[in-house]
Amino acid sequence: MERYGKGSKLKKLKTMKEMPSSEQPYEKCLADGPGVLTDAQLLSVIIRTGAKGHTSVDVANELLSINSAESGISKLMHLSVPQLMKIHGIGKVKAVQLQCIGELSRRIWKAETKDFISMSTPGTIASYYMEDMRHKEQEELTLILLNTKNKFIKDIVLTKGTVNASLVSSREIFLEAVRYRAVYLVLLHNHPSGDPSPSKEDLSITKKIRDAGALLDIQLIDHIIIGDNSYISLKERGIL
Predict the structure, then answer these.
(1) Which pLDDT belongs to residue 17?
(2) Buried b or exposed e, range 57-83, using 16+ CB within 10 angstroms
(3) HEC states along 99-159?
(4) What are the structural domain ranges in the chain?
(5) Considering the domain 122-233, what is its CATH architecture?
(6) Interatomic CA distance for residues 38 and 182, integer angstroms
(7) Is the pTM of this model over 0.85?
(8) Residue 176 in contact with residue 143, Cβ under 8 Å?
């Protein structure tokens, strides 16, 4: 397996133990808290050990220098285990740990923001789900339940794979809406191709749920399709 570290420009620095304690990320964190650490230093505490001639901070800097669509530490949420293992000093265990740290960070962010975010505009909703949805290799159709103030109540994955109107149960959707006392619904799904243009099936699903909701006085306010860093709102298109 090719490793980014071979032939790289990393300098052979001291080991962590040879550095002054004030320069060691673990000791700095104990003394002053994690807020004083750089991104590389934070990662080095997780990585713990480096490779021959390279400290864990060197390895962390190598990770942060990988070319990817995302910049800085956010790329941690999108690198695969094989990609991480190409870095000299990161084996399978460390790669899995780093992946879990990225996923944990994503979940913490969503948990902290969902109770405060007002999902009153297509752009707000698309931004909230963009990083979750745009990297998926299969289509997923998600139902978002909102209250009278457009505040988030719950989201539910309805289907995985091809999004087909015949597979979407209106009964299931509105049972969940009534159960959680939702007033408004939003449908959200991704196009793995990266092109968010709606298909005939997308329009068929939208009409099916919109018409069923009208009978129950539960309004489908939008159907948003996520592409690669782009989205289309059927509400903005005048279809809803």
Answers:
(1) 63
(2) bbbbbbbbeeeeeeeebebbbebeeeb
(3) HHHHHHHHHHHHHHHCCCCECCCHHHHHHHHHHHHCCCCCCEEEEEEECCCCEEEEEEEEE
(4) 16-111, 122-233
(5) 3-Layer(aba) Sandwich (3.40)
(6) 43
(7) no
(8) yes
